[in-house]
Write a structure and sequence with these properties.
Elements: H1 2-5, H2 24-36, H3 44-54, E1 60-64, E2 75-79, E3 82-86, E4 91-95, H4 109-118, H5 133-147, H6 163-185, H7 190-198, H8 204-211, H9 215-224, H10 228-234, H11 272-281, H12 286-294, H13 298-306, H14 309-312, H15 315-322, H16 329-335, H17 345-357, H18 360-363, H19 369-372, H20 385-403, H21 410-422, H22 426-450, E5 473-474, E6 480-484, H23 487-497, H24 505-510, E7 514-520, E8 523-532, E9 549-555, H25 567-580, H26 605-623
Antiparallel strand pairs: 1-2, 2-3, 3-4, 5-6, 6-7, 7-8, 8-9
Helix pairs in contact: 2-3, 5-6, 10-11, 10-15, 12-13, 17-20, 20-22, 20-26, 21-26, 22-26
């Protein structure tokens, strides 16, 4: 209360009459946010009026539409911009529009019935838990709506100093959403609700699938495959064996055969929702159907069915990593590793980290991981996998060099590289990568000779930095984080640590990454590459925030990753955490500058670099 009294309020003699109905405390809080967002004096009263009117209600309510005493009742609920309806069987949702005339406060059952008749298309994804990204988006939308249209031209992103506002308001609305959801879920089928929560997948699509058919058999199917069933039911695309140019293969089970195509050039397949529904309702052998659909051994399907979502990860976790179009690739790969199969949470987590480091040229092929990791630890949680993951990252970089430009020899080199990796062990690949790092030094020397007229050009031309305040960041343990902002910085880092960061100038100018150095009293200890990656693959790029910043690699001297217990690692983790939360202001618009720089524009250095790498690969692999 004392803090509120220090905040200046509008003088009661000159106060807008429409604001006099509010208490001094409410006016003080509204004035605080007006000052925080720097509302112009001419718009001050209008901002206060909108904010105070908006915050007198939460725009969250639920109304039971059935008769008292019924075991399952229809329910209508509002969560900000989302209207959600349970008709006694399935859950649907749609977005509010002004034409719907949605009441801010809880309506009577009769008014709610009339509201249903005004609703449009039920095409929005419903929510069943406030611990979800969709619920957070709704809460943030309500917090933004409280600021009104006057804030549209202002910087109201939920980062940095603005967390003072959004942190409080978002938590408040999430609490309101959670309370209304609790009442909403009380009227659902509790057995089905318990089933989807047990699978760690509280999604309305899965609830509707369980309710839309033979209830007992579908519950048995979910219990038998608590991860694969939700993945396939909720996926945007359905896996189905294809017969080359002949189209979809016919299913061994007549009940699952796809609908005849409407046109000769179309294959109309059922969705996972329908296919698995038919499988369960018809009593077809579930594991055999899944093995046929995913084209994997039956033993892999049985193994996955024995894994619990807590250890292997729920469907929502896999969707976040791989996207809604798929989510089972890494899981199926882990199930095919024989005596290396992950069993507990830490092992699965480590395996997924390794899988994500593999180049996509390998993850999209039938790669034998047992042969690839011959001689490596059998326990995925072994600390040695940290260094293995780092070298796998270097393999991805090698593929990138021959995929960046289509010049002479790159196509042949790429094919040779794929063939070699698919038939080699990790240690054989490691020797190739070590040779590649040494070859990069010779390639750079050769290109410097060919393009000597460019030496010194653009060496000090900086790309837009990630940090807005371009200063050295002092870490609590006495180390410093320095952003590397031009090719000369990268060359000096290369000389200090002996790794190939000097070749990352093209990626930085391209806007693909940003680079940092971890130092102690000016001496480099490790280098980091940071990129922007969507947490959910289908999410639009425009919604990137600092939380999308991801560390691709953190390397010390000679490309060796620093131990997680080292001071360099701890300092870097502290720094990245502050950037992600907005405590260190950052810019995420990284433009492509390559077309305006002499070293990249029309001089051909990058193409010659790709060609030189390709020639080295051909020479190395044909000799082997």
């Amino acid at each position: 209360m004392a803090a509120l009294e220090k905040i200046p309020t509008v003088n009661s003699g000159t106060l807008d009459p429409t604001l006099r109905i509010y208490s001094e405390q409410h006016l003080a809080v509204a004035n605080t946010w007006a000052e925080h967002f720097k509302i112009p004096p001419a718009q001050h009263a209008a901002f206060l009026r909108h904010y105070l009117r908006s915050t007198t209600n939460t725009r969250c309510w639920s109304v039971v539409l059935g008769r008292e005493g019924d075991q399952i009742n229809p329910v209508l609920a509002r969560f900000g911009e989302l209207i959600q309806y349970f008709d006694g069987r399935s859950i649907r949702a749609c977005k509010c529009v002004p034409a719907h005339r949605i009441p801010l406060f809880k309506p009577t059952p009769a008014a709610a019935e009339k509201l249903l008749s005004r609703m449009g298309f039920w095409s929005e994804p419903p929510i069943l838990t406030s611990f979800s990204k969709r619920a957070r988006e709704i809460a943030h939308a309500m917090s933004s709506a409280d600021l009104g249209k006057l804030s549209r031209g202002l910087d109201v992103r939920p980062i940095g100093r603005n967390n003072r506002y959004f942190g409080i308001r978002n938590r408040f609305y999430l609490k309101q959403i959670g309370g209304v959801l609790k009442n909403f879920c009380r009227h659902l089928d509790q057995e089905l609700l318990h089933a989807i929560r047990s699978a760690r997948c509280p999604a309305a699509e899965l609830y509707n699938w369980l309710a839309d058919g033979n209830r007992e058999r579908r519950l048995q199917a979910l219990k038998a495959q608590p991860v694969l069933i939700p993945l396939l039911v909720m996926a945007e695309s359905t896996p189905w064996p294809m017969d080359g140019f002949q189209g979809a293969k016919a299913s061994p089970w007549a009940e699952l055969n796809p609908t005849p195509p409407a046109h000769e050039d179309e294959n109309v397949l059922g969705t996972g929702y329908d296919i698995l529904g038919t499988t369960a309702d018809s009593g077809l052998p579930l594991n055999q159907v899944l093995a046929w659909m995913l084209e994997v051994p039956l033993s892999s399907i049985r193994f996955i069915g024995q894994q619990r979502p807590f250890h292997i990860g729920s469907a929502l976790t896999h969707f976040e990593r791989e996207g809604r179009a798929t989510g089972w690739n890494a899981m199926l790969a882990g199930a095919a590793t024989g005596n290396r199969r992950p069993l507990v949470k830490q092992q699965w987590k480590s395996f997924f980290t390794i899988w994500d480091k593999l180049p996509w040229q390998l993850t999209q092929r039938d790669i034998d991981l047992n042969r690839l990791f011959t001689g490596c630890p059998t326990d995925w949680a072994d600390k040695a996998w940290t260094n293995i993951a780092a070298r796998i990252t270097d393999l991805r970089e090698l593929f990138e060099h021959v995929s960046r430009h289509h010049v002479d020899d790159t196509k042949a080199a790429k094919k040779l590289l794929e063939t070699f990796v698919l038939s080699s062990t990790y240690h054989q690949i490691g020797r190739l990568i070590d040779g590649f790092h040494l070859a990069l030094i010779d390639i750079r020397t050769q290109l410097d000779t060919e393009f000597s007229f460019l030496l010194g050009s653009d060496e000090r031309t900086a790309w837009p930095s990630l940090l807005i305040n371009e200063t050295t960041i002092d870490c609590p343990n006495g180390l410093q984080i320095v952003e590397l902002k031009c090719p000369l910085d990268l060359w000096e880092e290369h000389c200090a640590l002996g790794h190939c960061i000097d070749g990352y100038d093209y990626r930085a100018y391209l806007g693909a990454c940003r680079l940092f150095s971890v130092r102690l009293n000016g001496q480099s200890l490790a280098s980091a590459e940071v990129t922007l990656e969507r947490r959910i693959i289908s999410a639009p790029v425009a919604k990137w925030t600092p939380r999308n910043l991801t560390t691709v690699q953190l390397r010390g001297r000679g490309n060796i990753p620093p131990a997680t217990t080292s001071q360099a690692y701890k300092a870097y983790e502290w720094f990245l955490g502050r950037v992600r939360t907005g405590e260190l202001p950052s810019r995420l618009d990284w433009p492509d500058m390559t077309s305006s720089l002499a070293r990249f524009a029309n001089m051909g250095r990058q193409k010659r670099h790709s060609q030189a790498v390709a020639q080295w690969i051909i020479q190395r692999l044909t000799q082997a």
